[in-house]
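Researcher: Here's my situation. A collaborator sent me these components and asked whether they could plausibly form a single complex. I don't have experimental data yet, so a predicted model of the whole assembly would be a useful starting point for our discussion.
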Amino acid sequence: MSASTPTDQQYAVRTPAPVGDELRAQKIAFMVMVAIIAIAPVVVYPVFMMKVMCFALFACAFNLLIGFGGLLSFGHAMFLGSAGYVSAHAAKVWGLTPELSILCGTAAACLIAYVSGLLAIRRQGIYFAMITLALAQMIFFFCLQAPFTGGEDGIQAVPRGKLFGLIDLSNIVAMYIVVAVIFLGGFLLIFRIVHSPFGHVLKAIRENEARATSLGYDTDRYKLAAYILSGTIAGLAGATKALVFQLASLTDVHWTMSGEVVLMTLLGGLGTIFGPVVGAAVIITMQNYLAQFGAWVTIIQGVIFVICVLAFRRGIIGEIAHAIKKSL
Amino acid sequence: MEIFGIPSQALFGQLLIGLINGSFYALLSLGLAVIFGLLNIINFTHGAQYMLGAFCAYLFLEKLGVGYWWSLLIAPVVVGITGVIIERTMLSKLYKLDHLYGLLLTFGLALIIQGLFRNEFGSSGLPYRIPQELQGAQNLGFMFLPNYRGWVIVVSLVVCLSTWYVIERTKLGAYLRAATENPQLVQAFGINVPRMITLTYGFGVALAAFAGVMAAPIYQVNPLMGADLIIVVFAVVVIGGMGSIMGAIVTGFGLGIIEGLTKVFYPEASNTVIFIIMAIVLMFKPAGLFGTQK
């Protein structure tokens, strides 16, 4: 064994396995999050909370790819936006029930993820980011020109409809519960993926792709699977968001949205379980309060980017986790 | 006269627009390739720095009465200096980390620069007059060529080819290429590699600003003029592959022409044709047309 080979202990420090104590910290954090979601509507607008949850799920999906697979996608808006268009179209034009509309949107995102993933995983690192960005821009122009998306206007006045044909979602409480269930379901799914054998292989590929290959793993297949899972869950967030706001628009497919989700995840903490949620909450809150200042939102986002990269690379949750020496 | 059922005026007109766009693709992707070669980062600020060049020219003219010709010289230097400052104060802190952090940092910087200019100047375009010496047009027999457009094509070709010559055929370029291959070894020979990196970044940025000044009279001067353009240039870079300087130039011009032709034959796809070509190239030659997979 050469001196430069990391010992098992070093690996354990980098990606601690969630056994016993570790898992307990994450369970407590999860309980806190559920409690906040349950209580928050009393204090803040439910619509605001629903927006936060949609973006939190979006950021978690993005984090699955960068944080655990080490792949930086700069085109995640293509999943959020196109799933939103498809679910809005399904609900408004086809008259489908909300759960089927969301399913349609998510399936569309899954398909786009499969095709774009086949292309994007052919290159790595910086190229991967550039390719996903370019593919997303292609989807953007498609959405701009396709007849069913309504061009600059988007699809407006999307009916929320009745869940399973029974529960009327124009009732804000019902809608809130549905969004909360989707968010928590998506979150737990990602949690499960991260801690599954699949998730561990993914982390191994992130740390040392050559070694993972030498152990007999077909790394391209794992990367593609992670990319599709990430894109599909991002699509779930987008499809839900379109029903909540009854709107699917070009904002959600634009590259600025791809940048925003990177920022949310970076601010919250790359590769942490709860970081993207916190990051999304902070960024959405900031946008809400600064909306009247126009371009200043962009400038402040840029400043946060620069600060995060230069001095705050662990992110909010990453710093907390580092301080209490547990993974969150 | 018609060619393939298309009036030749329209065909040559779009070809010319394609060549003009191609000139800017080539200049910008050349700058990206030079920076990437030595710094291993993708300069996301490139689009914003292109915009800065155009705004420098605009502000020089409006506030100081400095005309196009001096702007063409001064604006790249000014913007290049800001690039040197960015490299010294921020980028240089990231070389030991994953290269993706460089991408994220420059993306943040682009947001800041574009946001500040949007605050100050709004998002509508500001006009910049074509310099007096280059007004008018030439009759080529089959079409009219506006003098300024011809000038843009010729100058960007000259700049691109001289950059290629310097990098591939001179001693300075040899140092640069050596440092791209193995910076430690070059440093061991007594060459100041960190300074070379700084100046390379400054040069790449200056190229972007130069393109910006050239673009000012053609497209309007707009805070977001570089924001969408840079994504197309990224696709151009992926198609060409980063390895070769000549590759960046050829693909830049080539894709501009293809885009122009698409506008004639199937206008709906003109926005997306470059991305579609990128997808096809990735399928068959993932390293790019002129690139080598590392």
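Model: Some features of this prediction you could bring to your collaborator: Confidence is low (pLDDT under 50) at residues 1-14 of chain A. The longest strand of chain A covers residues 162-163.
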